[in-house]
Amino acid sequence: LARRPLLLMGAGNVVNVVARTIARTMAGSRGGEATLLKKVTHIEGDPPGKKFSRWTLPVHTLTFANPNGDTSMPSLGCRIDFGDVVKVEIPGYKPKSYSMSACRPGEFDITFKVYPSGRCSGYLDSIAVGESARVFGKGKNERRPGTHVGLVAFGVGITEALPIAAAELEKGTPHVHLLWACRTYADMFWHEEIASLQEKHAGAFEVTRILSQEDREGFLPKGRVDAGVLSRVFGGWLEAPKGAVPRFLTVGTKPMMRQAEKNLHSAGFPWP
């Protein structure tokens, strides 16, 4: 089990019997009505045109006040570093999970992409400042520490991957490498936040970007995240000194994550 490469594990998974298990209770005891305080737009987005591959969809960050004036940390009991989520109750529909992209005493952020005809993202986008949404936290993952942490983020999956990268760096993880894959450069945001982390944690934090629809200087050649790309980005860790422990987290749609996990396996990092 020492070579199992997952960074975060569900509490019910049998491979969770590793060196250091952290007992956790499920987040969610501090839910309720959360009032929207602020909305920041990262990407304005273009209306869908005839060429689907060129669509650029809006991305926003919503800052909500914690329910009931709660100022305890972490907000809603969500551990961002453990991949906990905010459940947003969508009227007439089931609750939808969103990553908490940041939290501060008394408030928290949700950063999301607005999809055409998206029932959940459309609801979030429709909330006006001063209005509220019902939310609660949920999480039961456990962190499996390692000396080398690789994060593979697809598109808006960066909203979970980057906060976890920041948390790992704050814990003193010596090697954190983020691979971010998008269709086009116009789909990317948080450039200043990434640069700030790189400056603050120089030598510990690396970022590699790849686009599937265009080439750009400083990025990997245009393409998909296949086993070859993962070997190029993380393969050096296979030669790391004895005692090095690589851990990985993939963030994206389920098909994207499952394929990335298979490709990591092919690249030499056995996956459960």
What brief labels describe this structure?
272 residues, alpha+beta, six-stranded antiparallel beta barrel, four-stranded parallel β-sheet, 19% helix, globular
Account of the 3D structure:
- The protein is an alpha+beta fold and 272 residues long.
- It is 19% helix and 29% strand.
- The protein contains 5 helices and 12 strands.
- The chain has helices spanning 119-126, 158-170, 191-200, 227-234, 254-266; strands at residues 8-10, 32-43, 59-65, 85-88, 96-104, 107-113, 132-138, 141-143, 148-154, 175-182, 205-211, 246-251.
- Strands 2-3-6-5-4-7 form a 6-stranded antiparallel barrel. Strands 11-10-9-12 form a 4-stranded parallel beta sheet, with helices on both faces.
- A hairpin with a 2-residue loop joins strand 5 and strand 6 (107-113).
- Helix 4 (227-234) packs across helix 5 (254-266).
- The N and C termini lie close together (9 Å).
- Mean pLDDT is 86; it is low at 10-29.
